[in-house]
Design brief:
4-stranded antiparallel sheet, mainly beta, 5-stranded antiparallel sheet, elongated
Length: 649
Amino acid sequence: MKNFVSQSIVKFSILFAVILFSLSSAYATGVLDPTFGTNGRVTTYVGEVAQATAIVIQPDGKIIVAGYALRQGIGGLNYDIVLVRYNPNGGLDASFGVGGKVYAAISPTNEVAYAVALQPDGKIIVAGYVESPATNSVNFLIARFDADGRLDTNFGNNGKATINRRGVNALNAVVVQPDGKIVAVGETRDEARAAIFRFNSNGSLDTSFGDGGAVYYELQGFTQGLFTKVALFADGRILAGGYGGVTVPHSGVSSFLVSFNPDGSPSANFGTNGIVAFWDGFLTPGFDFAILPDGKILAVADRTYRFFSNGTRDTSFTGNVAGSGLAVRSDGRFIVSGSFYSNFQTGLFTSDGRLIGGAKNLSANEIAVQSDDKLIFINSTEFEFVVTRLITITSQATRLADYDNDDKTDIAVLRPSNSALYVLRSRDGFIGYNSGEASFEVRRVIPEYKNPLPFVYWRSNGNLIGSPAFFCSTNGTSNRQCFQWGLLGDVPVGGDYDGDGFTDNTVFRPQNGFWYSSQSSNNQFRAVQWGVSGDKPVPADYDYDGITDIAIYRPSTGTWWVRRSSDNTYFSVQFGIASDIPLTGDYDGDGRADFVVYRPSEGTWYELLTTEGFGRFSSDFRPTFPFPAITTATADTTSRFSGKAFGIC
């Protein structure tokens, strides 16, 4: 990828003989893992009306996806349970079922899998429902499969355990206790109650739990309710969660968490009589939760919540994104999918709830996190299971913007002769923007902006150092907005320095090493001294917290000095020599900014990448202003158009 980027730079530089740059904004994207399937994605035909509903990752890295599909059977077209197992590289595991697939026709009618879990011995637990023509009912279903995909005939009745509770019933989630017992939760239309069961390892109901192995839970204040997720506390308590209808404080939907003791009784020291309810509104967008290593509970519904292990709300946590899916990485960062009411479908957040980056074109039925923190997303088409693996989601402070909202960087050039911006959009083709300004007034394009008006630039009417300068944006027609900030001689440096997802008007003043920002979150002025005369600004997200870090490159020593936004500490990296030009960006697609310099005397790009380590790329073409770089703005027509851009990822 890196070679492709560099070669593209050379070709376009020769072709247009203009300054190249790309635009960055507060959007991010998912970095597809090229070692998985085809460019990070695998599609598998499983049958008609395919639905991938659950995922579990084995300790050896193999991936099991559960769901169902419509298939021809003895009784005609019916839904059958489908299991597919993938090798770590995305290939189908030939040792599982037939060619990596298992179809389980447990009854002559319909059976569906909504959840999957692993036992320590590698056996696979599936939960859902099965229709029973004999009783004209839809029954709770637990099934167990051997590691090779065959039904385990030592479990329940020839591999399955069912519970008949009149009407329509289903299990939505399942978890295996350390002692091998199996806890499953769901819903019953019998008196519209949530249901929780515990099974022994042989598939029989555990009579020491609840009433003969079952608890049909009536939610006080709810007209109906269902459990959709279950997890285990370290002390043996069971946490179930879901949502249901309410009439107080308003008619609508509310999510809830219920803690049960190991014997199935509600935990008196959790919430109120074992339950914590939080109002969602008139319609629930979805619900999910996870128990964190410290015992706190992270939940997503109409927004993201965090609770202590006793159900008390953690008010130090600020989560303002709604969603339907949740997964937590080993470093405490978490992913929310189905992000309603936001400009992205999937988001990556810091442990305290601040957005790192969001992907606009990536959603999932379920998410899982591998041991190496790579992300697995499952989805369905009409006939296929779709599995996608991401290395990460890039930081909003590092991501290159796109003009057609397809999460791909667009190639753009500024033509100095007419101050026009020309963009070759990756999805929507060519578009041009004209600043409408005299060419000598447009000092520099500001490529770091997320702005409703796409062409953002820095201008000054005068040629004297210290003349007032303006940030301006336009749509290329008569609509133009300008904001006076900085002086001619300053270096405009975009970035999100306050973590609100929008770029702040910011300049670096080489004479005194100060950074001056007008923060978009509160319109407050901020001045930070970081650097001395002769330093070059290299802002990017080096600590992967979604906020642009103030950073400089000191040519006299070849040292990068970075002031972390996450804790206001600093670090330095010696990489480069006095004549090098520092380049900012994420060149290895791991979400973190890398250290890259271009050495004009050799025509070589040297890279110190946070994941891939040291690298270099040489070219016979030696640009005066390499892509991408920041240079000090001057009155010189050539140098003032050199733009900064973040690396393509």
